[in-house]
Design brief:
single chain, 175 residues, mainly alpha, three-stranded mixed β-sheet, 3 strands, 73% helix, elongated
């Protein structure tokens, strides 16, 4: 849906722009920029080390749970009801801790997502600043991202958002 809307807006702008004069549209491949920008390498090494540490901790907890499960299975018949219930409760508590740990790391808004944002945000801001600088210096009207079909820069003179909204509201009698 978003790509279709982007295509419609871009086509409308190109048609309107071609009537007013030539548009200067360029593109960049953000994936290639991130792969080839040397500052990203160190950041990704830091990020990967952090993720590896979290993976190792998750694996350690999972191994402990497996050990507890095997121990319980082999000793289960020999344990008193009270001791068996104690071990089962301890296992369930640790399983809950493990699941909570995994969720806190890899779940929505987890540490992986937060750390990625923390490390990459300054780099993305720097890239964006360079794109805007180039676009303004070279009088580009639009800078598109070939990697994900997004507009990275648009000359505000080509923004027809308010006009479209006004037309839609007027058509619905909501002006």
């Amino acid at each position: 849906m978003r790509n279709a809307l982007l295509a419609i807006v871009l086509c409308a702008t190109v048609v309107a722009g071609s009537a007013a004069g030539d548009l200067n549209i360029v593109f960049v491949n953000s994936e290639v920029v991130l792969q080839e920008y040397k500052a990203v390498k160190g950041v990704m090494e830091t990020f990967n080390r952090d993720v590896q540490g979290w993976n190792e901790e998750a694996q350690r907890q999972k191994s402990e749970l497996e050990r507890m499960q095997k121990e319980f299975a082999s000793q289960g018949l020999m344990l008193s009801d009270e001791r068996r219930q104690e071990k089962e409760m301890d296992y369930q508590r640790r399983l809950g801790e493990y699941e909570q740990f995994v969720q806190s790391i890899w779940g929505p808004d987890g540490l992986v997502e937060q750390r990625n944002e923390e490390l990459l945000r300054p780099i993305i801001n720097k890239i964006q600043a360079k794109l805007v600088m180039l676009a303004e210096e070279r009088s580009y009207d639009f800078v598109l991202d070939a990697a994900d079909n997004n507009i990275l820069y648009a000359d505000p003179a080509h923004d027809i958002t308010s006009e479209v909204t006004e037309m839609l509201n007027a058509e619905e009698g909501l002006d």
